[in-house]
Amino acid sequence: MIIFSILAAVAVFSAVMVITRKSPISSAIYLIVLMCSLAGLFALQGAFFIAALQVIVYAGAIMVLFIFVIMLINLRDNDFGIDKRKIQKYLGFIFAAVILLQAVFITGWAMKEFSNETESAMSSEFYQSPVDSLDQEDYLSAESVAENLFMRFAYPFEVTSILLLAAIIGAFVIARKSDPIDDEGEET
Amino acid sequence: MIVESILIILKVVVIFAALMTGVAYSTYFERKVVAFIQHRIGPNMTGPFGLLQPIADAIKLLFKETFIPNMSDRFLFTIAPMISFVAACMTLAVIPVGDWLNIGGQRIQLIISDLNVGILYILAVTSLGIYGIILAGWSSNSKYSLLGGLRSSAQMISYEVSIGLGIVGVLMLSQTFSISEIVRQQSGSIFNWYFFKQPVAFFIYFISALAETNRNPFDLPEAESELVAGYHTEYAGMRFSIFFMGEYANMITVSAIASSLFFGGWNGPFLPPVIWFVIKVIMFMFIFIWIRGTLPRFRYDQLMRFGWLILFPLGILNILITALILVL
Amino acid sequence: MPGLTHYLILAAALFALGMFGLLTRRNAVGVLMSIELMFNAVNINFVAFSRFLTPEALTGQIFAVFIITIAAAEAAVGLAIVMLIYRNFRGIEVDKINFMKW
Question: Helix (H, G, I), strand (E, B), or coil: what is residue B265?
């Protein structure tokens, strides 16, 4: 619980920082911190594979791409902050608050309905604490993620590969300069 | 419980101290070997055979003025070298330097943390190490640094893919993510080493590791002739030396990973396991330096082309063939 | 011992923050970052559901893998578009791109 609270606090704090910082690079860095703390949360739940994937792909590749673009177009602090116009700010705030309240209420309501039947399952010996059953669970994680991914979800997996291919080609074509000879090699 | 905690702290301290000594003396080693290759003598004035040279260098760097350029982002500028150094050191935590050891009835495993997902951990930490360089390049607010940072980040992302592909070749044979388990599988005879089962994977890994550590022939991010010193142009004194230490720590880690995954780690006859491990790491360090003394630098487009058009397809082909052999 | 509710509320908070950022940022890179934030919030939910409701099936974790993949694709294409906008408009404020508006 302590670890969860710390990680969650870090996550929320850096999320606030991400959306309020004036400088794009520090915003990106807080996003990296956020992703690492989320990876910690995943590891806390025994999903070690997802945790590693989160750091490798999100923090290691996607955010580098972000910082790369920020550096390439030399985005210094001009106008990166929150919109100056009041209407947009208040509307955004209200909208986000409504969504938050909705989510929290639905969660609370669903949990009340739910808790009766899942209480027993959730507090059963094996899933009581991820720490106790560390060996078993991360064994479960890496191997059965692979099993699920390549057996039950083989079709979506293949579709994803096509999606990635399309994204690579799309990114390349979009970011290419109009002169076709000049290639600059945009990769994901 | 207390004994275990003390043991863990002891292990961390010992390995960190060993790493620091290794870093200090690999600078000396590099200068000596390169001097030998170039028919020079190398450092020989401080102490016997110049053995005190690293200490003298450290003292000099320590007392230099730490300088922060104008208009730079002070916080990022300070934290960037630390990120790259910490990331380089953190990898060593999952690398076994020896087998179980019995000391006074206490069984000790010579590894800081025997993670079941050790290899994923290594990949994750290396991918974070890039930020040190990229942020250094950005925060110095100088065009040389910026270009060096951009170059090195592009290079490291590209070659990280190949590193992953090389490691996957070993993973397919070993069927586990745990490094100590992989090392144990290679015990017995020399032909159990994954180097003999996966030579292509080893070469892919090693070449990518050269690029990943920004070593010659892939040291474009710090190409003196065009970029002054790349991302650490604006760094001086202690901050510079942290970068420097991070770079050498990275070399040592990469050598340690290579020897654990492909060359049997601490396995070897007669000598105690730790000695074998150190010998293998030193051998890899020597190869690193040897390559630096021998090969010229790539051009940037050659480097990118080599990474994406040769190493990457080769890695995938290697995985395919390994899978075919495993299935058949 | 955090339960499912804790994770869901954390995810809701992050999602709402991401939504706020998405609505109030004028900068295209900032908008993309907010979207990544929302993706992450959804990921928390998936992993938590998989952990607490279907511990054997791992369906949620597989979905998290897919989401990470799609986020990578989205970031690549989105940033390519940002580059293009920057090249054509010399700036990436999303409300300055009003060629289609008369």
Answer: coil
